[in-house]
C-alpha cells in the first residue's frame, strides 16, 4: 500500500499539463455555486471583449493583457458584438449590494458573460474566467460551459510585504499586487519602515531616507548570524513611485494600506534624527534582525511633531481609510530610565510604561482621526488600554483579536501559526528562513472567525491576511517561493464558504494550479510533495524493519 501511495504522489507531481474541460473545473478560490454543462466556448483572434461601460474597461484590459502575455493572443475591446464575445458588465441603478464583490458568470458556445454587483465584483469574476483557461500555452483556448454565482465570505483579504528588511523594486511590487489580484484578494499591506530601513520619501524630513534608508551591512545567516557582509544596502520609494503603485493597485480593486512603525521598530528614523530617541544617540540603521531597544521617546513632544509631519505627507498618498501604525514589540527599557518619559507618565497620571505606550498610540490616533483616517495596530496596542477607534491586527495567536472583538473593535486575523508565510514550509528547507514550520495543509485548515465569539462579536472579524517578513528574503524569487502555494490556500480560506471544505478535493485543484504557476514562470515550493515522500519513506523503513 505504501509503495502504491508513493507511486501515486510521484505521478501526481509530474503529471503532464492539460486543458480544463467541463468535468474538471479547478477554480481557486472555490466559488459558492458552480454548475457545468457539456461543451466549451472557443477563444480565438476573432473573439471580442465587450465593454459598454468605461468603468469596466480596466477589467477588460487586464484580461486582454493576460491572454496576450501567456497565450500570445491579441483580443480587441469593443462596445458590442453579436457572437463570439466575452462581456464584462456591472449592474447599474440597484440598491447598495449586500456583498459588493458578488458576481455571476455564464458561458455558452457563443459567448461568456460576467456581471458584477460592482466594478470590483466584475473584476473578481474575470479572474474566474482566467482560471477556466488552459494551464499551458496553447493556440486552442477553450472555456468550459459553466454557470457561477459567487461572492467572498470575508471583506478583508490581505497580503503583506515587508520592504524594510529587504527592499524590492516598484516592478516587483506591481507583480506582487498582481499575485494578490489573481487570487481574488483585495488588500496590500505595505510595511514601509522599521529598524533596518525607512522606505518612503518624506520631503519635509529628507534624512529619513537619505540616512535611514540605508544600512552599512547585513548579518550573514540566521540571527544572530555568523558575521556581517559589510555591504551598504538600502533604497526607498519616492512619493511619485508610491502614487504609481497605489494607482496600479486601484485598477485591480486592491487597497494599499501603508505601515509606519511606532513607537518601536524606529531605529532607522533615530539614525536620521537622533533627537527622536531617549538618549540622543548616536544611532545607526540596524544591521541585524530581532527586536531593538532604541525606540521613539514618548516624553518628547518633538517626536509627535515629526510623526505628524510624516502623516501629513503619507496619508494623502493612500486613499485607504486605514493607516497601520505598528505598535508591536516595543521594549520599555529606555522609557524606564528616560527622565522625559517618566515625567510624561507622572504628568498624564499613567500607571506604567504600558500605559505610556497606549498614550503614544492614542495621541497619534487622535491626530490621524482628525485627518479622516483610522488606525490599525498589532495586538500589543491592547496593552495599557486600546485606542478608541483602532482596528486590531492579531498576530500573537488569536486571543488579542478575540479580546478586541469582545470590546466591539474591528479585527484582522494574522496569527503567526497559520498565516506567517515567512515560516518554513518544509521540514528540510534548502535555504535559510526565520524558522517555525507552516505547511500548506495547516494554512488551508485555518478559520479566521473564532467560534468562541457570538454572532454579533463575529461581525467584528473583518477578515485575515498573510504576512511576509523579509529578513531572509533578499530577492523576488525567494519571496515567490515562500508565498506559493500557501497564498493559494489562504485565498480559498478567505473567499470560499467555511463549510464544506475538503483538503483532498482542494489538493486536486491545486495540482492544476501548479501548472498555472509554471505558465506564470513563478518560483514555488514543492514541499507538500517532497515532505510526503519523506514521510512515506520513513513508514516504508519502519514497515521493512
In short:
By secondary structure, the chain is α/β, with parallel strands linked by helices. Helices cover 36% and strands 17% of the residues. It folds into two domains: 25-150, Chitobiase/beta-hexosaminidase domain 2-like (Chitobiase, domain 2), CATH 3.30.379.10; 156-495, Glycosidases (TIM Barrel).
Radius of gyration: 25 Å
The coarse silhouette is globular
Q: What is the end-to-end distance?
A: 16 Å
How many helices? The count is 19
CATH superfamily of the largest domain, by name, is Glycosidases
Q: Give the helix proportion (percent range).
A: 25-40%
CATH class of the largest domain: Alpha Beta
Q: Write down the CATH topology of the largest domain.
A: TIM Barrel
Secondary-structure arrangement, i.e. CATH architecture of the largest domain: Alpha-Beta Barrel
Mean pLDDT: 92
Taken as a percent bin, the fraction of beta residues is 15-25%
How many domains? The number is 2
Query: What is the number of beta strands?
Result: 19
Largest sheet: 8 strands, parallel, barrel
- Give the oligomeric state of the chains in this entry, treating copies of one chain as homo and distinct chains as hetero: single chain
Strand order of the largest sheet: 8-9-14-15-16-17-18-19
Q: Uncertain runs with pLDDT below 50, 5 residues or more? A: 1-23
| Class per helix and strand makeup | alpha/beta
Amino acid at each position: 500500500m505504501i509503495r502504491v501511495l508513493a507511486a501515486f504522489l510521484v505521478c501526481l507531481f509530474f503529471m503532464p499539463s492539460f486543458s480544463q474541460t467541463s468535468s474538471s473545473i479547478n477554480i481557486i478560490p472555490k466559488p459558492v455555486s458552480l454548475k457545468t454543462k457539456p461543451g466549451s466556448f472557443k477563444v480565438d483572434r476573432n473573439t471580442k471583449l465587450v465593454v459598454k461601460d468605461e468603468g469596466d474597461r480596466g477589467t477588460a484590459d487586464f484580461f486582454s493583457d493576460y491572454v496576450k502575455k501567456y497565450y500570445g493572443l491579441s483580443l480587441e475591446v469593443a462596445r458590442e458584438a453579436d457572437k463570439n464575445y466575452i462581456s464584462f458588465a456591472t449592474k447599474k441603478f440597484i440598491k447598495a449590494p449586500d456583498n459588493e464583490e458578488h458576481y455571476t458568470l455564464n458561458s455558452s458556445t457563443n459567448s461568456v458573460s460576467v456581471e458584477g454587483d460592482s466594478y470590483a465584483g466584475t473584476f473578481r469574476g474575470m479572474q474566474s474566467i482566467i482560471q477556466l483557461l488552459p494551464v499551458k500555452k496553447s493556440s486552442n483556448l477553450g472555456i468550459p460551459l459553466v454557470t457561477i454565482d459567487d461572492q467572498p465570505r470575508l471583506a478583508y483579504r490581505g497580503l503583506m510585504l515587508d520592504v524594510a528588511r529587504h527592499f524590492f523594486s516598484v516592478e516587483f511590487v506591481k507583480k506582487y499586487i498582481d499575485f494578490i489580484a489573481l487570487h481574488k484578494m483585495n488588500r496590500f499591506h505595505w510595511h514601509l519602515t522599521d529598524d533596518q530601513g525607512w522606505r518612503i520619501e518624506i520631503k519635509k524630513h529628507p534624512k529619513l531616507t537619505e540616512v535611514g534608508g540605508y544600512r552599512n551591512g547585513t548579518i550573514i545567516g540566521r540571527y544572530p548570524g555568523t558575521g556581517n557582509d559589510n555591504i551598504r544596502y538600502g533604497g526607498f520609494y519616492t512619493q511619485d513611485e508610491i502614487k504609481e503603485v497605489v494607482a496600479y493597485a486601484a485598477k485591480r480593486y486592491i487597497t494599499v494600506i501603508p505601515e509606519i512603525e511606532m513607537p518601536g521598530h524606529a531605529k532607522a528614523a533615530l539614525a536620521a534624527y537622533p533627537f527622536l530617541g531617549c538618549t540622543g544617540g548616536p544611532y545607526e540603521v540596524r544591521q541585524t534582525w530581532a527586536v531593538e531597544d532604541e525606540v521613539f521617546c514618548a516624553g518628547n513632544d518633538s517626536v509627535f511633531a515629526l510623526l505628524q509631519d510624516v502623516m501629513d505627507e503619507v496619508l494623502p498618498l493612500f486613499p485607504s481609510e486605514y493607516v497601520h501604525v505598528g505598535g508591536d514589540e516595543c521594549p520599555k527599557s529606555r522609557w524606564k530610565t528616560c527622565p522625559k518619559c517618566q515625567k510624561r507618565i507622572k504628568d498624564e497620571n499613567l500607571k506604567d510604561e504600558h500605559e505610556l505606550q497606549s498614550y503614544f498610540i492614542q495621541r497619534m490616533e487622535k491626530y490621524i482621526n482628525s485627518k479622516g483616517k483610522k488606525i490599525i495596530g498589532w495586538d500589543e496596542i491592547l496593552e495599557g488600554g486600546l485606542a478608541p477607534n483602532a482596528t486590531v491586527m492579531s498576530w500573537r495567536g488569536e486571543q488579542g483579536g478575540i479580546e478586541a472583538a469582545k470590546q466591539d473593535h474591528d479585527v484582522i486575523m494574522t496569527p503567526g501559526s497559520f498565516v506567517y508565510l515567512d515560516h518554513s514550509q518544509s521540514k528540510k528547507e534548502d535555504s535559510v528562513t526565520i524558522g517555525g514550520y507552516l505547511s500548506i495543509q495547516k494554512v488551508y485548515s485555518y478559520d479566521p472567525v473564532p467560534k468562541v465569539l457570538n454572532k454579533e462579536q463575529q461581525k467584528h472579524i473583518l477578515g485575515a491576511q498573510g504576512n511576509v517578513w523579509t529578513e531572509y528574503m533578499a530577492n523576488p524569487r525567494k519571496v515567490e517561493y515562500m508565498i506559493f502555494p500557501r497564498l493559494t490556500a489562504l485565498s480559498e480560506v478567505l473567499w470560499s464558504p467555511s463549510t464544506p471544505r475538503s483538503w483532498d478535493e482542494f489538493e486536486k485543484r491545486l495540482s492544476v494550479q501548479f501548472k498555472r504557476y509554471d505558465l506564470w514562470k513563478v518560483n514555488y515550493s514543492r514541499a507538500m510533495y517532497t515532505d510526503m515522500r519523506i514521510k512515506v519513506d520513513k513508514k516504508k523503513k519502519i514497515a521493512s524493519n
